[in-house]
Amino acid sequence: MCLQTGQLNEYTERKKMPSEVICMGIGAVPAGEVRALFLAVGLQDNTVRILSLDNNDCLSPRSMQALPAAAESLCIVEMGMKDSDNSEDAGAPQQSSLYLNIGLQNGVLLRTVLDQISGDLADTRTRYLGSRPVKLFRIKMQGSQAVLAMSSRSWLSYYYQNRFHLTPLSYESLEFASGFSSEQCPEGIVAISTNTLRILALEKLGAVFNQVSFPLEYTPRKFVIHNDSAHLLVLETEHNAYTEETKHQRRLQMAEEMQEAAGAEEAAVARELAEAFLSEESNEAVFGAPRAGPGLWASLIRIIAPTTGETFETYRLKQNLAALSLAMVKFGNQGDQQFLIVGVAKDYQLNPRISNGGYLHTYKISPDGKKLDLVHETVVDEIPLAICPYQGRILVGVGRMLRLYDMGKKKLLRKCENKHIPNAIVSINAVGHRIYVSDVQESVYAVRYKRQENQLIVFADDTHPRWITTTCVLDYDTVATADKFGNIAVIRLASGINDDVDEDPTGNKALWDRGLLNGASQKADTVASFHVGEIVMSLQKATLIPGGSESLVYTTLSGTVGVLVPFTSHEDHEFFQTLEMHMRSEHPPLCGRDHLSFRSYHYPVKNVIDGDLCEQFNSIEAVTQKSIARDLDKTSSEVSKRLEDVRTRYAF
């Protein structure tokens, strides 16, 4: 419709489309113009067409793009404007570009560049958002245009610090939204969720993770997940701390000392002061807990809901009992009943590592996962640092001894043990018949349990000493390790390694007795090695996004969350290896240290490409970008697209 001579008349020109129109999108009017440049039209034949809105050729077709599914919504935004605080950065775009965002009915979002002169579409990026059709809404964030995409969850696409971000919103599922501005909320979002109207404001751009903290009493050490209820069973242990019972006894003792110190004349006053002292509640959250001294420990087991933070039950251990390990297991002789095994050290001193033995506490878990019932305690002679379920039994690392326990009526029953681990067992992982046992300073040992002979036999080990902090089994032959010096290594047993003692023709286990390099007769190979630079505390094989591929996720002591992703083709490996080589020479670190030397700090870097270095390609000067891309037989946009595809395949 248009307004002419005071009357509202229908626009005289019409454009007949080859198929039924499903959705349309029109961009914002540029500065200095009276109308938008282009109109995007999504058709039933799985295509999107760009029509001109210029006065001279209004509604004339400019370009077309075929889609893998029917379009649900379209949104044209102007993004990529250089940040004001980075105005001297020659690598940033000199002007913003038009982007056509296409939400498909199969839950996929496409972002493609729309040429502001010709209307051509190029450089399409793809991202799966959810199971529902994608609806797109244009909003404003920090003075720039952004896109709010809604599928089974809501996502925000925006340009920040010279980089495109597509981040999920940590909020309930939304249905419709629009930009909202007021004095109290200058850049907000008004949205509909079910039958409620909500006004939202984003807290921080550029943040990848959203975290919610639930306060605990002591330092969390380990946790396991109860599969039926999804509750967490958390082990909390604090050094230099008193238990609640000991604190109460100490307060009574101090009150008695106050009365004894007072004379006969001041006995009444001292009694009143002692009563006031006992009735006063100490605010440890503000003033801190009293320090007990080295060698004193306080521990508890907490059952908590991870989504709400609600604590269902806490089980406190006695003073000077340090809970260090736990595992959830179903014993073969107990049916489907789940048990929690907790490894506890008694009178534990950190340096040197000394203790008065320890215990294995066995708890019965209720079906709803909200209560524990202590079944019995098993005395052990050293510190149990690692526990792992294994074929209806449990493997326990008691100091340097690997033991196999089964369930008994009054205590856990020791079935067999292996004494060939040199120092202390810190991690046990079982996959199939193989057991990967990690020593505190001698890397990983491959162990096989022979049921007929009731023996645990070490049949292979590593050639390099590693101060293991955590391990993760990748497959039957491969295990990933991390050490306290900030290295991640992938160790693999060769295909020819023999772990079956019955195949030894001598019949006297000579294959395992000969030894090699003062260790096992067979050695594992180092497949990959990489220096992270921080102490890695956990390794986990996981999928971070719906429909994504598996990756190796690691977390460090200083709070870093990183991902190691496998290459799926030789072409990708060669491309990123060449890109890394160019980035090492063209974009050296600010501190002047050689990049290859840093990543090979303890062991030579092997079969790992530094993705952080490769991603700095987007922040270097445009001239250098073109030079590197030319050597790769690509354009700068194609290199950036390859980087983004790898990131979005595995993580946000």
Structural commentary:
It is a single chain. This protein has 652 residues and is mainly beta. The chain has three domains: 18-200, YVTN repeat-like/Quinoprotein amine dehydrogenase (Methylamine Dehydrogenase, Chain H); 220-280 and 289-536, Methylamine Dehydrogenase, Chain H; 567-650, DNA polymerase, domain 1 (Orthogonal Bundle). The chain is built from nine helices and 40 strands. The strands form eleven sheets. Strands 3-4-5-6 form a four-stranded antiparallel beta sheet, with no helix packed on it. A four-stranded antiparallel beta sheet has the order 7-8-9-10. The longest helix has 18 residues, at 244-261. The protein starts with a strand and ends with a helix. 31% of the residues are buried.
